[in-house]
Amino acid sequence: MKMIIGLGNPGKAYEETRHNIGFHVIDRLASDWNAPxxxxxxxxxxxxxxxPEGKVMLVKPLTYMNLSGECVGPxxxxxxxxxxxxxxxxDDLDLPAGQLRLRQKGSAGGHNGIKSLIQHLGTQQFNRMxxxxxxxxxxxxxxxxxxxxxxxDEKPLMKEAVVKSADACNYWLSKPFIEVMNExxx
Length: 186
Fold this sequence. Notes:
Blueprint: E1 2-6, H1 21-32, E2 39-41, E3 44-51, E4 54-61, H2 69-79, E5 86-92, E6 100-103, H3 112-121, E7 127-132, H4 142-146, H5 155-172, H6 177-184
Parallel strand pairs: 1-4, 1-5, 5-7
Antiparallel strand pairs: 2-3, 3-4, 6-7
Active site: 19 (proton acceptor)
GO biological process, one term: rescue of stalled ribosome
EC number: 3.1.1.29
């Protein structure tokens, strides 16, 4: 089984914020595949989808961003999902708004959700899809920025990034992640 994990924060107050771009990709896939996240276990919502390429789990940790590993680690153990069969989707301040960057490993880069995953998974070697949200304007604190909604001029870029990310996830179901990186990076 493959597992696609979108990071974000639960609740109405966070729905449209920059930090929730991973949730948006999961919502897009769930809608495209007619697979609403109706199951709950280990502090997360998920669905298991039977695709022609095999079983796929869509996951939204409900632990709040900084504790995402508390959901993902136990779910992977329970369903016996291999490290190479996951991809984690999240926001990245160091990329221009809407740009995708796929990697097979790396540090947390200051992202607390990824720090939690590394801590609970015991490795930095897992597939990840970062979606650029750009840096905050001068004088704005990072927490305020990532928990703010997208500006009107950013919304089309982010919508396009969600579609492209969902496409990359679909591509990954039948291709090695390295091929997905070659196809979608940049």
